[in-house]
Batch of 2 targets.
Target 1
Amino acid sequence: MKAIDPDVIIVRELLGAGDEFVSGSDLAQALGISRVAVWQHMEKLRERGFTFEAIRSRGYRITARPTALHALMIRARLPQKARCRIITLDTVDSTNDEAMRQASKGTEMPLVVIAREQTKGRGRLGRDWLSEPNGNLYLSFVFQPQVAPEKLPTITPWVGVNLCSFLADYAGIAPEVKWPNDVLIDGLKLGGILTEARLDADRIRDLVIGCGLNLTPPEKGWRGELKGKAVALNELTTKPIDINHFAAALVNRLLRACQDFQRGTFTDRLAELWHRYDTLRGREITLLFGRETITGIAHGIDHDGCLLLEMGDGPLKRFRAGEVTLAKR
Ligand code: BTN
């Protein structure tokens, strides 16, 4: 991985200082460059959407920073040891597709692709994912875990519980996960995960985890099949959401989740967190599985990420895939 970009270090220092000034010589020392070179970086940063106050005897402080999606703002908010590439785009067909294209051309990984808008956002089962440029989060994470393909079905539930725990910490809300890939709040869809992979015979080559989170409702309100079924984070909290701050915190969480997946050190934690956030547990559900419709009581997931259903007196049955519907509580 390349050495850290000096601009990232400067922005990190200045953001960390809040309203305080940071002296040019402190920045120069942190970067191992001259004060003139620091000044040159500041001029470059001005061109990238930052505004600074500079006072000769005191140094620099940020007076305005980009509020739209900005890779530098995200990187500067990440802890120094969090190493991953970040690509931010104004518009893209699908961040999952872009992540896969980048992987194919050998871009260094782990890599995060985030877009302000998707023109062909995709959901599970070939559905569209509404991806207006209104401040929602469309993010794909791609990496190459040295993990056997059998482990693949556990990644979506693992990311799902990590999203729930992240949202609970970040926004003080009580999200739930609905097998296999939905994040809900009070039964309304707040987000979803679309996992795609390229496999070799005995290992996962490229693994793309796409996360869509509704942060703002659509400009014309929830309509059509989303009406009464979806919700956005800013409808649930009064705290304004800074997209770069939010994205950085989420990337940091996902980076750790993916490392745990890679090391295989997540199974017990997945069981514990699934139990905490599972919206289906103990409820009667209907599972559409191929052409079959199956009814049973949900009992969480097993170590392989399969849904466990109680159907009559026999042992619990496991299902690897399917579409769940449930009666309203
Ligand atoms: C679902 O609930 O069906 C999954 C939705 C996943 C949407 C995200 S948005 C970022 C990434 N890019 C896509 O095209 N899809 C995923």
Target 2
Amino acid sequence: MSTFTVKDFKSDLKPVWCPGCGDFGVLNSIYQALAQLQLPPEEVVIASGIGCSSRLPGYVSTYGFNSIHGRALPIAQGVKLARPKTTVIAIGGDGDGLSIGGGHFPHTARRNIDLTYIMLDNGIYGMTKGQLSPTTGGDQQTKTTPYGVFDDPMNPLKLALSYNASFIGRGFSGNVKQTVDLIVRAVKHPGFSFLQILSPCVTFVGRDQFDVIRELIVDLDESHDRSSVEHAWKVCNEAGKISLGVIYEASRPVYEHRLEEQRATAKRVGPTSFDGLLKDYQVSGRAHSPGTGTDRDEAAREYEPESP
Ligand code: SF4
């Protein structure tokens, strides 16, 4: 019997997104995924940065933190390390996660901290009224590029794969059923999970975006080997279509477990108290006696450079 239902994860705040925004589909998927996972709301933290999609923690009745621009991942990592039993989800847009927050993405991936990062990718800065973002593609016209964009767009999947993210998937906010399944699998995966969810900005990219994406999407089938880096690269480099599903999944040591192991080792072999540390330091012959400075002077003399 289910203890928690979708209703338990809805907060009293009404989303202020534009009618038809893709982010509604992702929010719905998160409600359903959390209900499916049967996670007590008080054991879940959703952290975000700034942007339209970063408002999402306010709409879910778990713990949440709508923080500062680009900092969803540092906050999510801090929460996970301080409270390892908490389920931690970081949320944000393409601008938040790949521009100002771009430096945090590879580091979180390479550490393999057990959290899920959901990037709602709409290829634009929506909240600030339609400037180009790192994933704005082709010759798209935006408020700041009225004659089109000539930068090559960033591919967040490639970034995740390059830095060894142990779970990578892609979904579409217009396909809630598949997005729910991706979120459930990502949260269950031990280690860093990254999901790129295509989530149209109907106001600044266009109302036709759902149809444009629907024309291009295909589901990954059994011929795709999720454990193969080569297969994952193929998906990242595909043109003329957008494959959805779990792109890559691997088992790697989780950061928190390695940290625990190192703490246990340090306790076994290292000084376990301040006195022990002091003794260890004195034995090494580098200590100085307060008040006299004698030992410190000796140590300093030991390192004095020879006169030429
Ligand atoms: Fe959604 Fe775009 Fe409106 Fe922001 S500006 S709420 S991304 S439709």
